[in-house]
Amino acid sequence: xxxxxxxxxxxxxxxxxxxxxxxxxxxxxxxxxxxxxxxxxxxxxxxxxxxxxxxxxxxxxxxxxxxxxxxxxxxxxxxxxxxxxxxxxxxxxxxxxxxxxxxxxxxxxxxxxxxxxxxxxxxxxxxxxxxxxxxxxxxxxxxxxxxxxxxxxxxxxxxxxxxxxxxxxxxxxxxxxxxxxxxxxxxxxxxxxxxxxxxxxxxxxxxxxxxxxxxxxxxxxxxxxxxxxxxxxxxxxxxxxxxxxxxxxxxxxxxxxxxxxxxxxxxxxxxxxxxxxxx
Length: 279
What we know:
The chain has 279 residues and is α/β, with parallel strands linked by helices. The chain has helices spanning 15-22, 42-48, 64-76, 98-108, 136-139, 147-151, 209-219, 226-238, 269-276; strands at residues 2-8, 28-35, 55-58, 82-85, 90-93, 112-121, 142-144, 156-162, 166-167, 174-175, 198-202, 253-254. It starts with a strand and ends with a helix.
């Protein structure tokens, strides 16, 4: 059985689109609500979408370590099932059907599959407004790799795994009981990146993102990666409150397909893959 787990905080703009992306891929979806205060209305906002959460927690603002703890806890409820772990603004795209990838993993003894971020942005680098009726593919026609060179954020993601396989904070690497992680280009329990390296299309960059980035920066806590968010905020401000798509380090391209995400659309992916796993 293939399950999906996502943790939802204050931003639900992308959530309906994200769930629709996965509905024909997975068998069951688990939504965890992360409230930042007891008076936080995120639960009510999610319920308005017709979603009943699997669990509701309350913790410090933007504690990404707690978010990862919840991912690991939910997955452990079905340790032998396969799980996709996806934040609510991430649309993962696989090079072939996920069931084929799982079959190969089971045959060859792999417990997890990895990938990396592709940042999605609006025309000319703007941050588009998103509603439930928005066509994400048309509103975010540009794909690139700008967050990591902008602020040093880790671009690696563990995307698909057995329920017993823990991940590190941010879901960047697999975490093992001996204290080691899956950092690097290979691991015996990891599906080889030449067999499958998942594109994680990141739709973080909507109209609300600048305000949200500033809020995280203002927390000034290590568990929120506030320093990284401050660098990101400053870079966006310095480029006129948008992404500088002319920066060659950001590798921005126009998508050819504007009705769905094609794995083969982004021409620099094979080169970017080698860079991502080195970080």
